[in-house]
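Quick one: structure tokens for this chain, please?
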Amino acid sequence: MPELKQMHSGHAPAVLAFERANRAYFAASITDRGDDFFDQFTDRYNASLAEQETGVCAFYVLVAEDGSVLGRFNLYDLENGTARLGYRLAEEAAGRGVATATVRELCRLATARHGLRTLRAATSHDNTASQRVLTKAGFVPVGPASPADLGGESGTWYQRNLQP
């Protein structure tokens, strides 16, 4: 059974392998990270961990029994009880309810561990899989998301009010 764990330095090799293995799959529905992401992965990863230490963000990985990463589930801009949610799931785990279950678990952790009351997530109009995940996880559409919010695409902001 996969386990959602807060990201730490030991996860770096598995996270890089996950990003490389799923790059083309992700690029079909979200903006590609670009070659620089992979060329500068160690520096970016360490910067993310440093940012997480400040409490501004919380990064999680969904780890399979064999230690491989099946997904990344992140909370950004934690402020005043609110954060933005971002996630990506490996192609091999897609379409089986894994993302929905993990987003629900992250909502629980957002309240219990981070004291959050509201989560927001933006998804493009073309990303119907992400729209389904958010809706099934209790998020509701709250307004348009601009191309600046979504790497050049238009979409919708979703929001979920969390219960303590």
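The first strand starts at residue 3 and ends at 6.
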